[in-house]
Amino acid sequence: MTEVSVAKEDVAATGDLVVLKSVNKHFGALHVLQDIDLTIARGEVVVVIGPSGSGKSTLCRTINRLETIDSGSITIDGKPLPHEGKELARLRADVGMVFQSFNLFAHKTVLENVTLGQVKVRKKDKKTAEERARALLDRVGVAAQAEKYPAQLSGGQQQRVAIARALAMEPKVMLFDEPTSALDPEMINEVLEVMQQLARDGMTMIVVTHEMGFARSAANRVVFMADGRIVEQATPDQFFSNPRSDRAKDFLSKIL
Ligand code: ADP
Ligand code: MG
């Protein structure tokens, strides 16, 4: 019996981590996600691009159940998304999310921001949580800011704290929704570098971004969305050098 369960875990450890099947979502009359089929393998880095309003943020938000879906299914690590309560808090820990607007707790220090969820959701003792928080703050290059409040940090520093906070929860997958769009230009690279390193370390990542340099160097796959649909998926090389759809060609001609 033990052997069987070990074998099963081996299969899970190499398989698909995030699976969306025929996902549909409406906002009133707007069909914002249309028959989305998307499978993300463990360790894969997928960059999602597409025009404003195409449904990229909504897609991310459905994956950690900040939005519900109308039909279809989403599984993380083989399990359907929970609806409420502790299960939902655990899902949100498993699926780390980094937003354009940082979303740190303004009245908590940087260290507290990165410690809280570990204690509340992951049930770590405070000392263990703080040690992990300090190690992660060091990893993203803001260890010296640990006792400060978010407003005392630059945007780039705040976003790196937000990444550390998500990582502290030991997520299975990280979602980034335009993590550098609100940053001053000189701070974009410090955040992208942290994300590059995370990708090299093998984290499964879904990244909505207009940073095509990041897409080219870090992504295993580019997913192009328009009008609530996945129009095209390809390797970055294929996508940027030879986009197949007119929508993608048009989009690339405007941004490159
Ligand atoms: P993207 O991130 O690609 O710019 P979004 O997922 O944010 O696109 O939005 C897709 C569409 O859904 C847009 O037309 C947007 O106005 C609409 N939308 C997003 N969130 C809501 C909401 N909570 N209620 C109504 N419409 C929404
Ligand atoms: Mg968006």
From TrEMBL:
Family to which the UniProt record says this protein belongs: Belongs to the ABC transporter superfamily.
Name assigned to this protein: Amino acid ABC transporter ATP-binding protein
Domain ABC transporter: 18-252
Subcellular location(s) per record: Cell membrane
Lineage: Bacteria, Bacillati, Actinomycetota, Actinomycetes, Kitasatosporales
Gene Ontology molecular function terms on file: ATP binding
Record has Transport as a keyword: yes
Principal localisation: membrane
Pfam family, one: ABC_tran
Keywords associated with the record: Amino-acid transport, ATP-binding, Cell membrane, Membrane, Nucleotide-binding, Transport
Entry annotated with the keyword Nucleotide-binding: yes
Membrane topology annotation: Peripheral membrane protein
